[in-house]
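A quick word before the example. In earlier lectures we treated sequence and structure as two separate objects. From today on, think of them as two lines of the same record. Here is DnaJ-domain-containing protein written that way.
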Amino acid sequence: MVAETELYDLLVSNASQLIYVRLIVNNCHPDKNPNDPAASDKFQKISNAYEVLSDETSRESYDNFGTADNSHAGPPMDDFMNSFFFDLNRPPPAPKAKDQVVDFDVTLEDLYNGKSVHFAIEKDVICKLCSGSGGKKGAKPQTCGRCSGKGHVLSSRQLGPGLIAQMPTPCPACEGEGVKIKDKSKYVLRTTLSSISLEFLGVESGMVDGQRIRLQGEGDEVPGAKPASLVFRLRTKKHDTFRVSGYDLAINIKLTLLEALSGFEKIICHHLDGRTVKVSVPQGRVIQPNETLCLRDQGMPLSRGFGDLYVQCEVEMPSGYWMKLQDRNALAKLLPNPDPKNAIQEGEKTENVKYETSSMSNLEISLPVASTSSEGAKSLSKPVTRKLVPVGGAYAAHASRQANGRSFDEDDALIRAENEKRAEEERRNQPEDDGVGEEPESKELLASDPKNYKALDMYAILGLSNLRYKATPDQIRLAHKKKILRHHPDKKAGRGGDANDDSFFKCVAKALEILDNPERRRQFDSIDESIDDKIPDVKFKGDFFAVYGPVFDREARFSDGVHPDQVPRLGGADAPRDQVEEFYNAWYNFNSWRSFEWYDKEVNEGSENRDDKRYTEKKNKSDRAQRKKEDNARVRTLVDNALAADPRMKKFRQEDKAAREAKKNKAKGIVSDPKKAQEEAALKAAQEAAAKEEQAKKDAENKASKATDKKAKEAARKNLSKAKKAIKQIVTDANYFQAPGSTASANVIENQLNELDLIANGLEPEETSELKKTLDATKDNEAKRAAITNAAKKLVEVGKVENGRFQQYI
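And the structure line, produced from the sequence above:
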């Protein structure tokens, strides 16, 4: 027996269609009962009852639980199921339109520079006639009787043995809408129509292949859901010049043999933004075949900086018999000697074999046929034990140990002693006049850490503290050799030291690696702490040439583009004028090669975070530029101080002045007396000094007067502003001069306030203050209004305000 019979009671019997139709026609149809206001609601309930009882699933639910959607099921069971199965009774999510994904072809130039595109696209839009319901105009949707307007019904699902849960599913009767439209009210067209819209797509600089650009809400429209998004997937076209990998670019260039051996300077490509890229390889730098050069910050744009451009060099070899014998001999003197192992020994039998030019593409190699037997491929020969006998140098060492009864450790100690003896003999045989002397080694120097090599003095490590930048490459190698012979771990072990402590030995190797490389050595020399880069003060005391001469000689060695010996020197007191002017002109255009790259922070090449690497490189570049700027400013200050203190320039200025005076006197027919001219010059100088002092005094007084006037004007402006506010407040307190009990309209208030501003701005500050005093002195509103009216008439009479401008006070 069912727990609830409301729907059966509505249909009177077992919900047969015949009784349902009879009830509609005879009893409850609104058209049959126009005077009954409850007929429409009753007709709706009967319709819902028929929909529930005519469907077997909903009728079974109604018979078991009392309602078609199980709305009267016990809450304790719902709470229990929801706690275990995450609210299974909640409705399914709202429908969502599917995004449209469109492939969009772009070039590398578009990704590098950015691009804006306007295009038309066809999409589905909701029908405006039916608003997506599918019904005719004015059609009223009816609540779905199966789901009671919820859009979903519960269906039973077995989750396990003896465990059944009801899951929400879209209602099949209304397709999840919760309402239905009768067939006779349905619209003849679709709920959505095809439409063409004009869209804008912006490809930003730095986007990559496969990246998606989402235009929110620009896709197809679906009734009851948010519009879909239009997604563009970037597809990069193949470029004729560049290859791209992530944010890096790569190109191939061809070099001649001469360019590969002697360096080059050439334009390698036109970049994606139209600029030309030029690469300069210094003379003496050899490019190996298929060597790759990395151009930093020349790749694709990043959020911070750029990727890299990799240049793979292909060396084109000369073809045919292009070299003569004398050219070959000259080239042999320049190139390294061939490997002596491949040289023909005297008395060795040789055979001349003719050769022919061939191509590997024509070479055919016959491979053995693979075994078809599975047994043959897996069978292995049996293991064989054989005795190994040392041969060559290992055999000689083994025989020596066996004959003398020495162990491996004893044999190694003997070898170290022999090597040390041989090295000592080589050191004694070195010429004494090599310029590399012995320097004491402090404990701090011997405790140097090779990992922190940028904090070390490379010249002190090799014992070249006295020579420093003057040391020749041969002296550097000789000093390195002496240090190696002295601090090799084997030598330390022979002297009873710790052979495992090779820190200083590594420092010596690092010092040679840096100082033997011209580029690295210049980087170190650029920041050598022994450099005295202090400049004399402009108010120094002493001999100008003794103070500034050594400073300019010291700075000249940093000259870039001009050999240090050709850089103009300061000279002496008797230097001619043209030489002095040439000196200062050259130093005002001085260019230093100090680059300060030694201070760069190390970039962790093993890091996978490319942004961190790019940021470090960018920071290093910025710091180098700042240090270079400071060094240029230091040199400029040096030249400025020297020019200001140079006694020769003072003498030249005095000579120029005397020449001008003599020229003037000659034009006037005056014969100048040197003594008198000197006295006149001194008197004139004193007069000029007095005039300057008087002018400075006047300037100070004018400045003080201006400051006082400024303060007075500021005070007057503040007082005027206060007076304006006070006058407006007086008018406001007087109710804008309205009759007692009446209220001023907004239009009257606005007009009066505007005219008060006009009056206050037209009057002089003193007149405005006087008007305020007059208004404060009386309590009669008519008198106050008369005072304001008189002020307005005065402005009209003097012509400051045109007649007819005042409407409230005249």
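Notice the following. The CA atoms of residues 359 and 365 lie 13 Å apart. We will return to this example when we discuss secondary structure assignment.
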